[in-house]
Amino acid sequence: GWGNGQFEYNTNRAQNASLDGEGNLAITARRERYQGNDYTSARLSTKGRFTHTYGRIEARIMLPAGRGIWPAFWMLGADVDQVGWPECGEIDIMEHRGQIPSIVRSSLHGPGYSGGQNIGREHAVGGGKLQTDFHVYAVEIEPERVRFMLDETVYFEATPDSLPSGRKWVYDHPFFIILNVAVGGSFVGPPDSSTVFPQTMKVDYVRVYARPTP
Questions:
Q1: Are strands 8-10 and 37-41 parallel, antiparallel or unpaired?
Q2: Whether pTM exceeds 0.90
Q3: Exactly one of 8, 90, 142, 152 is catalytic; which is it?
Q4: CA-wise closest residue to 176 among 80, 98, 108
Q5: 4-25 residue pLDDT tens
Q6: How many domains does the chain contain in total?
Q7: Does residue 95 have an active-site annotation?
Q8: Of the four, 35, 37, 70, 173, which is 20 to 30 A from 5 by CA?
Q9: CATH classification at residue 199
Q10: 211 — pLDDT class (breaks 50, 70, 90)
């Protein structure tokens, strides 16, 4: 996991990441003993292949369900290997606690406001539809503004003034995209006997739009 106490072993096997025959990418968490871990899953990243600075990044996703299931659609600064985290910046477009079917969270992590001290907001959608229907999760990144949306509803917007006093705005350089399903960890807690496996996050598409040049 990404330093958050997650239980899964991320593999490159088709059992954990594949096309589902209906045009969707399927990222699947499984309960199985593998490489010393009790769960497997996958994390897909564009690191070293594709980065983007300003514009709109969106994905149409159906979320998995269950206690301890932690799907995410997020971005890391492409300079992570040079400056480390959180100095590189992290943009969490969507994180979800599988045991709370109606809520997603978006947040920013940077130097002095990372981990549990991130700046972010939760957004609720009634009826548990996040886990039974596809929804479009999006971020729009501008030179001094980051805006988060679910199905075109803006529910969180951050600017340099949103940061704790004296903290640095680190969203002005290239980022790469990550899609993953974690099992357990600080955000969701462990799975329990109520958690059904396997659990799959379905991704219909990921789209990136460049910001028009003024």
A1: parallel
A2: yes
A3: 90
A4: 80
A5: 678 999 999 999 999 999 999 9
A6: 1
A7: yes
A8: 173
A9: 2.60.120.200
A10: confident
